[in-house]
Write a structure and sequence with these properties.
Helix content is 34%, strand content 21%. The protein has 9 helices and 9 strands. The strands form 3 sheets. A 4-stranded mixed sheet has the order 3-9-6-7. Strands 4-5-8 form a 3-stranded antiparallel sheet. A two-stranded antiparallel sheet has the order 1-2. The relative contact order is 0.12. About 9% of the residues have low confidence.
């Protein structure tokens, strides 16, 4: 079920106030509302935790409120614009504020990238305050490697969970892997005890394009000013199997702290 369909169904059954309750996430899961992207679950949790959902249920004029709510949320959280806009527009549709059916695309909404390495900048997110550290689940992601090491074990665990949640929410796919390669991609971000970032890609299906030795996946990190911080290459398809898991490694010296990262761009090229 699409996210907007699940919201509409749940609101019709339980009333619109249900979306302000943190437990509604479990109801969405029961309706398989996150089949398009598990990032939607992260965004919905933040909308509830930060009070945006309370604003949404009292909107009277969606046409005049839409841009303000979306811009404020993106500026405060630095979530990917396409993902955050889609989730909020799904809520507006489910709450009956608009009859326009939201359309989700993994790629940025204004430009098709193919295998190009030049990203489409998230212009709304550029307006976010550079003096306000990224906050997820009430945790500021502004710790350096040494500061993280000085945290208690429990604080480290919570920081790790918040970091992984944030990193997974800002991934932008600039290639259509299913169309181009005939595979589906699931992406996971691991933040380990040494503050390394480990992007992991689960590749389901046999790659349909012809190649000699391997393909390359690229992972690009961008800072809050949309400047590239680092680029990593991953060789894929060497074993020519129907299932593969690959990963790369990003050292803390390459990003300094999580709050410096605004976007993670992923695409593929022939080797």
């Amino acid at each position: 079920m699409k996210l907007y369909e699940a919201i509409q169904t749940i609101v019709q059954e339980f009333g619109k106030e249900i979306v302000t309750n943190a437990k509604v996430i479990n109801v969405f899961s029961d309706y398989n509302a996150f089949e398009e992207s598990k990032t939607f679950k992260v965004i919905l949790k933040n909308l509830i935790a930060e009070g945006y959902m309370d604003q949404l249920i009292y909107v009277r004029d969606w046409a005049n409120s839409q841009n303000r709510i979306i811009n404020n949320f993106i500026a405060a959280t630095s979530f990917n614009e396409a993902n955050a806009s889609y989730v909020i527009n799904c809520l507006a549709y489910g709450l009956g504020y608009t009859k326009t059916v939201p359309v989700y695309s993994q790629s940025a909404p204004t430009q098709q990238m193919g295998t190009s390495s030049t990203p489409n900048y998230n212009t709304r997110a550029q307006s976010s305050s550079k003096n306000s550290p990224t906050t997820v689940q009430g945790i500021k992601l502004d710790k350096t490697e040494s500061q993280f090491e000085n945290l208690s074990e429990n604080a480290q665990r919570k920081y790790k969970e918040a970091a992984e949640t944030y990193l997974e929410s800002i991934i932008e796919f600039k290639s259509d892997f299913e169309k181009d390669l005939g595979v589906t991609i699931s992406t996971y971000m691991e933040f380990d005890q040494f503050t390394n970032i480990l992007p992991k890609f689960e590749i389901d299906g046999k790659i349909k394009v012809r190649y000699d030795f391997s393909l390359k996946f690229y992972v690009l990190l961008y800072d809050q000013n949309n400047r590239m911080m680092c680029r990593k290459e991953i060789y894929v398809g060497q074993k020519r199997t129907n299932y593969e898991v690959v990963q790369t490694h990003i050292d803390p010296s390459e990003y300094h702290k999580i709050s410096n990262i605004k976007r993670i761009v992923v695409y593929w090229e022939e080797n």
